[in-house]
């Protein structure tokens, strides 16, 4: 992103990251196998390619089903955001909370099943706006990411038990921004968020309330979906 697009601004974040799991909402039989039903347009997902490796590990295949079906396929496709916090590749080494959590899950599952043919976790990194659409289209089995449970998302997917409840959203300001004490101060500066984030939904709700009250609205600026929270924090802190 060009530096001029983020000046003296504010970014909105959760006080703590929540790494939860989600699957498509359970509308079908647990043992159902086969292609996914029609859903959101995924022409922008760029998941399928003609590579032979993709065919082998199932990246080109659309499939929806429960854990029993995943075990039968000996593969669980985990959709993850790509970042040093969640899932990151450095040379031949992989790291991140999502990677470590799913690696432990893979070990526990294989120990419990006691099968000679092991079940493998296949990590598929995507931008955050692609995670749920790809899941619904059958290009992944679970999403492992810091996703806030919202009513809109609950209509689409089933969440695991929350890792953390009662988290607070906080504003993070960059150099040159005076202390934000209320909406009047906030209206002086742009607020940078991803469109796919729950922060964006909440800012829209705030603007809707301000509009009905006849007040000026928050200046929402959208950033690229490839930018993770830590990326935006660094840019805001640097005053870019």
Task: Describe, in plain words, how this protein is organized in 3D.
With 240 residues, the protein is of the alpha/beta class. The chain has 2 domains: 3-15 and 167-237, no CATH class; 20-159, 3-Layer(aba) Sandwich (D-Maltodextrin-Binding Protein, domain 2), CATH 3.40.190. Helices cover 30% and strands 21% of the residues. The chain contains 8 helices and 11 strands. It has a 5-stranded mixed β-sheet with strand order 6-3-7-2-8, sandwiched between helices. Strands 9-1-10-11 form a 4-stranded mixed β-sheet, with helices on both faces. The longest helix is centred in the middle third of the chain and has 17 residues, at 97-113. The termini are close together.
Describe how the helices and strands are arranged:
Layout: E1 10-14, E2 20-24, H1 52-57, H2 67-73, E3 75-81, E4 88-90, E5 93-95, H3 97-113, E6 120-126, H4 128-136, E7 142-145, H5 151-154, E8 157-159, E9 169-173, H6 183-186, E10 190-193, H7 198-212, E11 219-222, H8 229-237
Parallel strand pairs: 1-10, 3-6, 3-7, 10-11
Antiparallel strand pairs: 1-9, 2-7, 2-8, 4-5
Number of domains: 2
Q: How much strand?
A: 15-25%
Mean pLDDT: 77
Fraction of residues in helix: 25-40%
CATH topology of the largest domain: D-Maltodextrin-Binding Protein, domain 2
Strand order of the main beta sheet, please? Answer: 6-3-7-2-8
Are there runs of 5+ residues with pLDDT below 50, and where? 1-9, 12-19, 27-44
Question: What's the helix count?
Answer: 8
Structural class: alpha/beta
Radius of gyration: 20 Å
How far the N terminus sits from the C terminus, by CA atoms, comes to 10 Å
CATH class annotation of the largest domain: Alpha Beta
Q: How many beta strands in the DSSP annotation?
A: 11
CATH-derived architecture of the largest domain: 3-Layer(aba) Sandwich
Sheet with most strands: 5 strands, mixed
Following the backbone from N to C, one meets helices and strands in this order, namely EEHHEEEHEHEHEEHEHEH
């Amino acid at each position: 992103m060009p530096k001029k697009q983020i000046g003296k601004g504010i970014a909105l974040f959760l006080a703590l990251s929540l790494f939860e799991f989600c699957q498509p909402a359970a509308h079908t039989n647990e043992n159902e196998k086969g292609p996914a039903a029609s859903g959101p347009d995924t022409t922008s997902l760029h998941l399928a390619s003609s590579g032979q490796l993709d065919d082998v590990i199932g990246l080109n295949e659309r499939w929806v089903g429960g854990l029993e079906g995943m075990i039968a396929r000996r593969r669980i496709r985990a959709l993850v955001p790509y970042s040093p916090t969640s899932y990151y590749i450095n040379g031949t080494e992989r790291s991140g909370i999502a990677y470590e959590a799913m690696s432990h899950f893979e070990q526990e599952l294989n120990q419990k099943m006691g099968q000679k043919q092991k079940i493998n976790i296949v990590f598929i990194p995507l931008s955050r706006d692609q995670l749920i659409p790809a899941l619904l289209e059958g290009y992944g089995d679970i999403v492992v990411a810091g996703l806030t449970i919202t009513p809109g998302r609950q209509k689409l997917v089933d969440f695991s038990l929350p890792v953390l409840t009662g988290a607070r959203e906080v504003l993070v300001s960059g150099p040159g921004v005076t202390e934000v004490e209320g909406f009047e101060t906030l209206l002086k500066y742009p607020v940078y968020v991803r469109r796919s984030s729950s922060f964006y939904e909440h800012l829209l709700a705030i603007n809707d309330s301000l509009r009905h009250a006849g007040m000026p609205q928050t200046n929402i600026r959208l950033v690229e979906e490839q930018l993770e929270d830590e990326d935006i924090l660094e840019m805001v802190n640097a005053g870019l």
